[in-house]
Write a structure and sequence with these properties.
alpha+beta, hpI Integrase, Chain A, DNA polymerase, domain 1, rod-shaped, about 10% strand, Double Stranded RNA Binding Domain, four-stranded antiparallel β-sheet, disordered C terminus
């Protein structure tokens, strides 16, 4: 006879009580009632657990039995299907977006500066992990990512939204490559199609004609002397502000007239040698009287154990009247523009800027440091700035004459 709910509630006798189609309830000595399915696959008798009564009702147990029998009719073993489904669920539970993103960050860390790693990790922690971090990557849909990214855009951070989308896509590519998910559902998400168009604004930088006034204003600046020295050396070396602010006295070789910046402090993670002009050495020697007993060449006036902040440099420029017209990072653009316009070798200029060659084939044959050429270039640049401070006009550099 088939089972009923009333019979199941009344069952107390240990043993098997059959319902039909291989389904039965096994009553344990302590009164537990367990649904089981007995079936044969390739001639071998097997059992499949279908749940415990009353958490699983008789109706549910019958539906699970019927589903298992349909699998058998397709030539599939329902027990193996159950194991595969459990393994898949366990895999997905381990491979949440946050878990895979953390592995991606660890994988990428050696190629990034620490500040870059921390910036990307912070963006994920603030805008991505709270929304989708705990969910299995395989279960996320494009709409989930779109909602997270548009929420960033909605608060007026369009550039940040674009960067976050690019990094989410990178995490998904990493997940596919490392077999954390089977396919990438985010391939079609494009920044230009998903987010509102943004006007790209480059960092403000001076033109050559503005140099006489700027250099005179910098000479007359009466603010913090360390900030003033940093702005002078920034113009003379064309370093990135972060690279200059973090300069340490141990990186200076006065005899060789150069700075040697280790790779971990460079954006491209490669050591960089900076030849120093006569004028740059004068700035550094004057700064030695201020911070020569400390580790940092340009310590913060408020927190001596920390370097100057880029905001300190830009605030000084704003007080000098250059807000919106010039930034600390803009010194690199001034150097690059003027040096190129005056006819200097573009490869030498790019190497001084510590730019990475994007063409991999060209890069393989183009690893020269151009140290002698850069030394001459930076001395020319320092003399050029001295002349512009006096308002002199400078004739373009003649390549043939140099040859």
């Amino acid at each position: 006879m088939k089972l009923t709910d009333a019979k199941l509630r009344a069952l107390r006798e240990p043993g098997r009580h059959f319902d039909g189609g291989g389904l039965y309830v096994e009553v344990s000595p302590n009164g537990g009632r367990y649904f089981r399915l007995k079936y044969r696959f390739h001639g071998k008798e097997k059992l499949l657990a279908l749940g415990v009564y009353p958490a699983v009702s008789l109706k549910d147990a019958r539906e699970r039995r019927d589903e298992a029998r349909r699998a058998l009719a397709r030539g599939e073993d329902p027990g193996e299907l159950r194991k595969a489904a459990k393994a898949k669920a366990d895999h997905e539970d381990r491979n949440t977006f946050q878990a895979v993103a953390e592995d991606w960050l660890t994988h990428q860390a050696e190629g990034w500066a620490p500040v870059t790693l921390e910036r990307i990790r912070s963006a994920f922690a603030a805008d991505v992990f709270p929304k989708i971090g705990a969910r299995p990557m395989a279960q996320l849909k494009p709409r989930d990512v779109i909602d997270a990214v548009r929420a960033i855009e909605a608060r007026g951070a369009g550039d940040q939204a674009g960067r976050v989308l690019q990094r989410i896509r990178a995490v998904y590519r990493f997940a596919v490559v490392h077999e954390r998910i089977d396919s990438n559902p985010m391939l079609d998400l494009k920044t230009t199609e998903l987010l509102k168009p943004r006007q790209v604004t480059h960092r403000a930088a001076l033109a050559d004609k503005d140099l006489p006034r700027y250099l005179a204003d910098l000479d007359a600046y009466e603010g913090d002397p360390t900030t003033k020295a940093a702005l002078r050396l920034l113009m003379l070396t064309a370093l990135r502000p972060g690279e200059l602010r973090g300069l340490r006295w141990v990186e200076l070789n006065t005899d060789a007239a150069e700075l040697r910046i280790p790779g971990e402090r460079m954006k491209m993670r490669a050591p960089h040698v900076v030849p120093l002009s006569r004028q740059a050495l004068e700035v550094i020697e004057a700064q030695r009287a201020i911070s020569g007993t400390r580790d940092l060449m340009f310590p913060s006036p408020f927190y001596p154990g920390k370097p100057l902040s880029e905001n300190t440099l830009n605030s000084a420029l704003a007080r000098m009247g250059y807000k919106g017209a010039h930034t600390a990072h803009g010194c690199r653009a001034v150097f690059s523009t003027v040096a190129n316009e005056c006819g200097h070798d573009a490869d030498v200029i790019e190497r001084q800027l510590a730019h990475r060659e994007r063409n991999e084939v060209r890069a393989a044959y183009h690893r020269a440091e151009y140290l002698d050429e850069r030394r001459k270039l930076l001395q020319w640049w320092a003399d050029f700035l001295d002349a512009r401070r006096q308002g002199a006009r400078i004739l373009p550099f003649a390549r043939k004459a140099q040859a």
